[in-house]
Amino acid sequence: MTLAPPLDSNIISSLKTGDRVLISGTLYTARDQAHKKLVELIAKGKKLPFDLNGQIIFYAGPTPRKKGSLVGSIGPTTAGRMDAFVEPLLQNGLKGMIGKGPRSQKVKELLKKYQAVYFLATGGVAALLGKCVKKSEMIAFPELGPEAILRIEVENFPVIVASDSNGEDIFK
Amino acid sequence: MREINSSKIKETIAKLLTKAACDLPKEVESAIKISYKKKGISNLEKSILKELIDNINIAREEKMPLCQDTGTATIFLEIGQDVHIIGNLYKAINDGVTEAYKNLRKSIVKNPLSRENTKDNTPANLHIDIVPGDKIKIIVLPKGGGAENASFLKMLLPTASKEEILNLIINYIKENGVKACPPLIVGIGLGGTFDSVATLAKKALLRPMNIFNKDKKIANLEKILLKKINETEVGPMGLSGKITALAVHIEVAPCHIASLPLAINLQCHSHRHKEATI
């Protein structure tokens, strides 16, 4: 099965926990500090650096790219650290998250409530995943260094549906 | 007395860290390959282990970092007492880190609260031992943040039984192992003090994979733990399965009559380390 964001409600409801999916299209990277900043902007009613509608956030901070290459190594960081920031982003249209490791019960309920999905990517295979990235551009928070928000274009990026919009969870 | 210029230390550290990021030690690679060939593992487990093997090959061939988290530059120096170092040792070490991390992710912030990036991955997390001889042994262990976050320290009662200690370790990994990117290498420190037990657990990671402790009683505990941890069925990436740990190493140290310090330092499957003697 292949996916291309933006994700609509038909796609979301068709994704079931355990499904293996290839994503081709746009992802936005954001880690801990970027989440803190995004949620602060939402709280202040300010404009976000990108439109969240239907989009997927990838919990990642890549290595620098080498001369002549498109991107460095990239892979998921522990998703649980972002749990507390998930709801405001879902309220603003976010439909997918890619990370590693389990989520809180609260996040699973939010995925059901806002009809969104949490995907797993394998941790520690960042050279392999880096090969799927075809384009990368920094779009916000350059001061965060490796935690800046990037817009990346991926091709056949492999993920597993970990928590679907029915509240099912791959981590029992 | 043998003189070693600090520039030699800088160069060696830069070279070792650069290599460690992209070239997984063969012993770790073979442990993963042996797991992949094990009978009775699920298709999902097999496919994740295959990704790890493919990743090792791409990283080595294309000199791409194995993991985006190129870690805290953890460095162990064993300095021969007959060595005279010319120049500033600490500066040389951090200059070596700066050099290596030009092309790696800079994951260190200046202050835990202000969170401003140091932009060169310094300072190194440094451990120095003075040993006999006129050489310097340098070991680098770039350590990822996720596995480090999932590590553990507890001051146990000195009357704790072996079973209690083993159960605590097994249950801890059952609950938390998933966060450290399994299959894991488990470093355990037993004894010492509050501060030294954590270093002991980290040093346990440096022992060659599955070379058991020289003390047969401790070696026996390592074997029991490896078996029991794999029976937790946490599995690769926590998606359940038979392969949760690749190795368990325990190091012990003398301790106070009132104490029994325990530290568990978890290491992800991307167990990157390199060493050289100058």
From TrEMBL, chain A:
Domain Fe-S hydro-lyase tartrate dehydratase beta-type catalytic: 10-172
Molecular function (Gene Ontology), one example: hydro-lyase activity
Organism domain of life: Bacteria
Gene3D superfamilies xref list: Fe-S hydro-lyase, tartrate dehydratase beta-type, catalytic domain
Keywords assigned: Lyase
Matching Pfam families: Fumerase_C
Family assignment from sequence similarity: Belongs to the class-I fumarase family.
Record-given protein name: Fumarate hydratase
Organism in which the protein naturally occurs: candidate division WOR-1 bacterium RIFOXYB2_FULL_37_13
Lineage, opening ranks: Bacteria, Bacillati, Saganbacteria
UniProtKB/TrEMBL annotation, chain B:
Lineage of producing organism: Bacteria, Bacillati, Saganbacteria
InterPro entries, per database record: Class-I_Fumarase/Tartrate_DH (IPR051208), Fe-S_hydro-lyase_TtdA-typ_cat (IPR004646)
Keyword terms of this UniProt record: 4Fe-4S, Iron, Iron-sulfur, Lyase, Metal-binding
Record's signal peptide: none
Superkingdom, taxonomy of origin: Bacteria
Record domain Fe-S hydro-lyase tartrate dehydratase alpha-type catalytic: where: 11-276
Protein name, as recorded: Fumarate hydratase
Molecular-function GO terms, alphabetical: 4 iron, 4 sulfur cluster binding; lyase activity; metal ion binding
Family: Belongs to the class-I fumarase family.
Pfam families: Fumerase
